[in-house]
């Protein structure tokens, strides 16, 4: 046994000590090696990589300290979410003609990444909406159906305000989801008929990255390599739309292709390909035809992906939006922010019918 451990066994003739001394010497070494072995076993049990020295194990600096926060970043970002006409449940929750709503999943999506929400109620007076815009560090356009009337006009004005703020040096991100993608495409292309019909309602899909795309600086930059691969092989994003834009039509519109770069495409139920993710070349504007918020926060439809990888997608997309908002130089009065936060409203449970949104904030 001893020979196996150390690879050497001294004989009596080679040793100046008595047999008893040799035996004692041998057993002392065995005991010593057992102690050393137990010590390293305990280290391995505590940490699977014993060669890595944890900060608490370092003797170079015994006084704990915290890394200073970056003074250029805003660690209390606020995102404005534009409300959508209706109650989100075809009148089952509120039939008020002036009702608008924000699905709670968008609020949770933003909050999960470390930001708060101020609702931008689309049919409030424009001066009120602009006042709220002065309190936020970014904007989110949600999904829905409204593509004309007051809703479109307000979205267009918010988009122009976003351009003005960025041009003035304030980092001010804008996210568009589903309808938000479509509205932005209509505004930027200067063509309200830019959209094409697609059969992509209530389905999970993959995302296919376009050839030679550079994801540096985009929403996908932070995705780990394995998750980028999963996006192209597994149906872990949720699609729910009847309109979209083909890559060909997108490329042929000079205004649209000058403003956005295509990141991904997807295919509908008839295998027709449409643009599914875009990011602006020169502005912090990102738009998805799919729904990054639903994987983690909506349960009304069985086809919504809820795998671990699908949840990771939600988390990474939310983190990117809020990381961009932290770059905003806007520091509004704290009390003004508090007075307008979504916390001043209560969500309504709308999922009893087993479909639609689980929760919605309704504004009347």
Automatic annotation (TrEMBL):
The active site is at 178 (nucleophile), 291, 291 (proton donor). Its main location: secreted. It comes from Cucumis melo. GO terms for molecular function: gamma-glutamyl-peptidase activity. This is folate gamma-glutamyl hydrolase. Keywords: Hydrolase, Secreted, Signal. It comes from the Eukaryota. GO terms for cellular component: extracellular region; vacuole.
């Amino acid at each position: 046994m001893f020979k196996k451990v150390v690879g050497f066994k001294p004989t009596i003739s080679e040793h100046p000590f008595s047999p008893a001394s040799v035996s004692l010497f041998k057993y002392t070494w065995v005991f010593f090696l057992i102690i050393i072995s137990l010590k390293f076993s305990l280290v391995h049990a505590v940490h699977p990589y014993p060669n890595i020295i944890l900060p608490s194990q370092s003797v170079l600096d015994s006084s704990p300290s915290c890394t200073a926060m970056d003074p250029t970043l805003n660690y209390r970002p606020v995102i404005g979410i534009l409300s959508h006409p209706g109650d989100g449940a075809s009148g089952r929750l509120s039939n008020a003609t002036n009702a608008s709503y924000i699905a709670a999943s968008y609020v949770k999506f933003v909050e999960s990444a470390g930001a708060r929400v101020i609702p931008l109620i689309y049919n409030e007076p424009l001066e009120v909406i602009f006042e709220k815009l002065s309190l936020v560090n970014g904007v989110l356009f949600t999904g829905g159906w409204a593509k004309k009337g007051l809703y479109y006009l307000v979205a267009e004005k918010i988009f122009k305000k976003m351009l003005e703020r960025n041009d003035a040096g304030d980092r001010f991100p804008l996210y568009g989801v589903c309808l938000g993608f479509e509205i932005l495409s209509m505004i930027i292309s200067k063509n309200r008929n830019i959209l094409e019909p697609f059969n992509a309602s209530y389905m999970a899909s993959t995302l296919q990255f376009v050839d030679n795309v550079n994801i540096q600086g985009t929403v996908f930059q932070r995705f780990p390599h394995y998750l980028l691969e999963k996006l192209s092989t597994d149906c872990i994003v949720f699609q729910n739309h009847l309109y979209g834009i083909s890559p060909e039509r997108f490329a042929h519109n000079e205004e649209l292709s000058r403003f956005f770069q295509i990141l991904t495409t997807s295919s509908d139920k008839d295998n027709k390909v449409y643009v599914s993710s875009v990011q602006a070349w020169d502005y912090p504007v990102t738009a998805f035809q799919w729904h990054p918020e639903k994987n983690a926060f909506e349960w009304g439809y069985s086809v919504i992906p809820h795998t671990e990888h699908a949840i990771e997608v939600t988390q990474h997309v939310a983190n990117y939006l809020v990381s961009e908002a932290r770059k905003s130089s806007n520091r509004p009065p704290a009390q003004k922010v508090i007075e307008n936060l979504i916390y001043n409203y209560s969500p309504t449970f709308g999922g009893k019918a087993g479909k639609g949104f689980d929760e919605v904030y309704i504004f009347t």
